[in-house]
């Protein structure tokens, strides 16, 4: 997630450099083509070029809107995970007898690991040492580790109910909280595994290159430098907008525009430990030169 007031223009340019190079080369070739003997007299009305430009603008507006919706939905989901994690531990403290602090602590440790495991699996990263140590200690080998940890939550609840430490009503309340966590996990997996239609991006690229092809034939030849600049600059603006939407539409890709799942997981760990009166080390502040957190 980008930090307020900070952004690295250089990193963004590096991200889109191949698009910029491609559109620049294409613009130069089209400009040279427009100066050839056979095509120098060809003039295309600006109204026709404007129609193509308007179509691109509408498509980009839709693309950017849909990308932002996916990004914002991911942030809302992780906000709900924060609330439900705190709710789970609060309910356990209230519902279980005071001499069952060890049981609550087992839930707390598992929930902390669940947050880290979910964030790392969404980013398709190897599990961190903390997660690996917990999985090895508890022999968790399932393919979907976050789901397996929720199952362990459920099994522990059942054990507590069987031992008479939880009434049916309180068990149902706790199970509803686990259901919310499971729903949040499923929503994250839906966003991660639903690919934005490739044909949509292909159509936008086709129209941008068509616009670049037509533009030199609608500009005045008396101002060659301005004509060259506009032929490259206007399509570049379209490319930059589309690339921004592409970066935003995948909020779990371990990049600057990601949902800050690692940072959120660290904050959840601090809060849950404090709920049980345990010491917790707060996450380190972002590096002064950093412009985003993960």
Query: Mean of the pLDDT scores?
Result: 84
Number of strands: 0
- As a whole number of angstroms, the C-alpha radius of gyration is 27 Å
Distance between the termini: 6 Å
Total helix count?
9
Count of the domains: 1
Largest sheet: none
* SSE arrangement, N to C: HHHHHHHHH
The 3D shape can be described as elongated
Beta fraction: under 5%
* Sequence stretches where pLDDT stays below 50 over 5 or more residues: none
**Helix content, binned percent:** over 70%
Q: Based on helices, strands and strand pairing, what is the structural class?
A: mainly alpha
Tell me what you see in this structure.
With 294 residues, the protein is an all-alpha fold. It is 71% helix and 0% strand. The chain has one domain (9-275). The longest helix is centred in the first third of the chain and has 50 residues, at 46-95. It is elongated, with a radius of gyration of 27 Å.
Topology:
Layout lengths: L8 H26 L11 H50 L5 H22 L6 H9 L7 H18 L5 H26 L4 H17 L9 H26 L11 H15 L19
Helix pairs in contact: 1-8, 2-3, 2-6, 2-7, 2-8, 2-9, 3-5, 3-9, 5-6, 7-8
Write a concise keyword list for the protein shown above.
294 residues, mainly alpha, 71% helix, 0% strand, elongated
Q: In a nutshell, what does this entry contain?
A:
By secondary structure, the protein is mostly helical.
